[in-house]
Amino acid sequence: MLTIIGCGNSNRTDDGAGVYVAQHLQRFLQFNPKQNVKIFDAGTGGIDVMFQARGSSRLIIIDASQTGSEAGAIFQVPGEELEREREVSYSLHDFRWDDALYAGRKIFKEDFPQNVEVFLIEAESLDYGLELTGKVKISAEKTIEKLKGIIAGYE
């Protein structure tokens, strides 16, 4: 099973890049069904990533980044390079997808995907707003096309 999860806050301009990609891929999947592919919009709910990924053999996460790189830059990174152990807390509000990767491996063991890739799209703006900026939208469209190819070839 291939699971693709878009993360981010679509009310904060480019932070919604992962959500934008996931929503477009969901529409693509409606017209090109694949029984072994699931696509989710996890928004900002990191804990959702952990549970939606469970049972998949491959996981792809899409999110915005803010590293100081050129806006619209696309980074494709192995998940194990980004997962992190979460500091002990009683609140799940700060539980992000990178925390979910670590926790999912610890909790679900073999039932959590070993093949994890993360696509990060460098944000230009994280201000309040519902639309992606121009450069980020172009990069999101490129990411959608790349992922459509992965979906089409997934058996």
Describe this structure in words.
This protein is an alpha/beta fold and 155 residues long. The protein is 35% helix and 22% strand. It contains 4 helices and 5 strands, in the order E-H-E-H-E-E-H-E-H. The protein has helices at residues 17-31, 46-53, 97-108, 134-153; strands at residues 2-7, 37-43, 58-65, 74-78, 115-122. Strands 2-1-3-5-4 form a 5-stranded mixed β-sheet, sandwiched between helices. Strand 1, helix 1 and strand 2 form a beta-alpha-beta unit. Helix 1 (17-31) packs parallel to helix 4. The longest helix has 20 residues, at 134-153. It starts with a strand and ends with a helix. 40% of the residues are buried. The mean pLDDT is 92.
Mean pLDDT: 92
**Low-pLDDT runs:** none
* Distance separating the two termini: 9 Å
H/E topology pattern: EHEHEEHEH
Work out the radius of gyration.
15 Å
Sheet having the most strands: 5 strands, mixed
Structural class: alpha/beta
Strand percentage, roughly? 15-25%
Global outline: globular
Share of residues in helices: 25-40%
Number of strands: 5
Lateral arrangement of strands in the main beta sheet: 2-1-3-5-4
Count of helical regions? 4
Give the key terms.
alpha/beta; 5-stranded mixed β-sheet; 155 residues; 22% strand
Task: Summarize the model shown.
This protein has helices spanning 17-31, 46-53, 97-108, 134-153, and strands spanning 2-7, 37-43, 58-65, 74-78, 115-122.
